[in-house]
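quick one, 374 residues, struct below
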Amino acid sequence: MPLLTRSISLLSTAILFATLAWADCECGYTANGTLYTDLTETDFLHTKSLNESGWITQVYAVERETSRGPFGKDASAKQIVTNPLKSRFDWAGDGVNGGDAGLQIITSNPGKSELIPMGEIGTNRTDMLYGSFRAAIKLTGQEGTCGAFFWYLDDSREIDMEFLSSQFNETSHPVNLVLQSQASIDAGYDAGNTDAFQTHQLPFDPSEGFNEYRFDWFEDRVDFYANGVFLKSMSGEGVPKDPGHLMLSQWSNGDPKWSGGPPTQDAVMTVSYVKGYFNSSDTQRQSDWENRCKDITAPNATCEVPEITAPPQTNETANTFFFSQQQNMTVNQTLSRGNPNTIASGACSIHASVQSILTAALLSSLVLFMNWCS
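---
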């Protein structure tokens, strides 16, 4: 092959390589056949601080007169405690502070106060519009609290998986599935008097170990799961249509018809991970997706979200898959940096702008080379 022909062929190959996808999952993540453009993942088993974790500790007080119970609520930072595993290579066991490793959300006895101390966190991203959301949680065994994993915009637009510790006993382990809506507000903030409330008995004790709770939110329905097993589907006017954010909380207001309590001692709800795969309502995030997803049919342009096959309770089963802990699978995603196992998207992936620079440089080299040869 003549030198000029061979050189042009090599440069053309290099240019072609530069224009191909540089990363996996650049078009998004699929769950049950539905594509989502964005993700949020937090490995609380190895998170030492909530700083830069993508989560915000909620701080507020609700007075007894407006709490709809005999006690008010006092949400504070001291009720949120990170308790990472002693080794970054472990996935189960005691944390550095003793007890179950993970993020501890604590509800305490109020003593002489009218406000019951509680904990609550929410994602800093509020642009989540439809998605698949899951959290591994060990609920408290102390009676008198409501533990919740939920999506929230306001009191009339909310998707809840709620656990009442006073309902747990040897034969009953229910999860309460709720779509808070205007109908529940009209019913006196009691979704139980609407068609957007269902209770499902679980085949395990939520206070005995970590289990994954999940809801998939679509335009026309919400599907609920536990440990990858489908529980219920809910539809109707209670399905939200606007963006919001994920939240985790444990609280009590002493209401005998719901939370019960207050607990006689610290009630600890522990979270080992949260994972969310969703579409964004933010126009910049939508533009980012359009720029990075050049060919949705290309190999590995989309990545399927792995489902768990067993409760995440042992060193083997709790080592679940995180896209954010892999190289080159979270290009242009907004990742938290709160735990040492997270790989920042910019550190291990070539961004589309770098790809463009390399392509331009190779094209310039080809033009110069051809001019030199002519």
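The first helix runs from residue 3 to 19.
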